[in-house]
Design brief:
11 helices; Alpha-Beta Plaits; Phosphoserine phosphatase; seven-stranded mixed sheet; magnesium ion binding; alpha/beta; HAD_sf; globular; EC 3.1.3.3
């Protein structure tokens, strides 16, 4: 395997930290000459023999040094994949939209607490969503546009990642436990191929505190990835799936490459790759 190390340029990771991690892996680090991420530095340690024990030691050393790492098959290419599927809140974008909507009601702490518990897997997602949406009852629907205009920002590296994978011919799917108001706008803004999310009920310009139709939970996310793969003539193993919370684990589990982005520990532990420090485009340095 190759061990790929990455760090934000602004982190100024020391060469001694890189050398120490490379030594743990039984090799020497070389600068990645074909790095595709403008805001990050990357190094390759070639010919590494993977083991769970080594992964545990590398994980601890990299966390301390603010390095991201991944064990990758050197033969694996971006061209091996057909689809990139992404969660939205706290993955493609930096915020949890429902928390910011709740802030318009002065209820952000209460809603954010439920959101965090759901993302850690402590509360079943359907229950958590219905409880949070119920707290929004009576809010003027114009609050959604305010959140989009004033608070929604793309995660670091999102545009570079999307630009590169779209140029390579991969399809894109945004599948979210959030809301169509935001995913529809992301689809148009970023030229995404597919989106799927929940619909907030609005009556007379006010949120009713209810969701229309079925809930996009962990099972529905997995089924959506499978449906889109079937539609484009691909296998789930040809999908790269990115997420941050427990609700993403089932769709990540069927993918060929699962990416935990700024994720909860339960997600990082099960993902192929964790990106804790570099942007979403960090995946580009992992694939030839």
């Amino acid at each position: 395997m190759n061990l790929i190390l990455q760090a934000q340029k602004s982190a100024n990771v020391s060469s001694s930290d890189i050398d120490a991690v490379a030594a743990l892996a039984g090799g020497r680090a070389e600068q990645l000459a074909d790095a595709r991420v403008p805001d990050a530095d990357a190094w390759r340690v070639a010919g590494v023999t993977f083991s769970d024990d080594l992964k545990t030691r590398i994980d601890a050393a990299c966390l301390a040094a603010q390095l991201d790492y991944a064990f990758v098959d050197p033969a694996r290419k971006l061209a091996d994949f057909r689809l990139v599927a992404m969660d939205m809140d706290s993955t493609l974008i930096t915020i949890e939209c429902i928390d910011e909507i709740a802030d318009m009601q002065g209820l952000k702490p209460q809603v954010a607490e439920i959101t965090e518990a759901a993302m850690r897997g402590e509360i079943e997602f359907n229950e958590s969503l219905l409880r949070r949406v119920a707290l929004l009852k009576g809010l003027d629907a114009s609050a959604l546009q305010r959140v989009y205009d004033e608070r929604l920002k793309l995660s670091p590296g999102a545009e570079n990642m999307l630009r590169t994978i779209q140029a390579a011919g991969l399809k894109t799917l945004l599948v979210s436990g959030g809301f169509t108001f935001f995913t529809d706008r992301m689809k148009e803004r970023l030229g995404l191929d597919y989106t799927h999310s929940n619909t907030l009920e609005i009556v007379d310009g006010k949120l009713t505190g209810r969701v229309v139709g079925g809930i996009v939970n962990a099972d529905e996310k997995r089924l959506t990835v499978e449906r889109v793969c079937q539609e484009i003539g691909a296998r789930p193993s040809q999908a790269i799936v990115m997420g941050d919370g427990a609700n993403d684990l089932k769709m990540m589990g069927i993918s060929g490459l699962s990416v935990a982005f700024r994720a909860k520990p339960v997600v990082r532990a099960q993902a192929s790759v964790g990106l804790n420090f570099v942007g979403l485009d960090g995946i580009l340095n992992l694939l030839g």
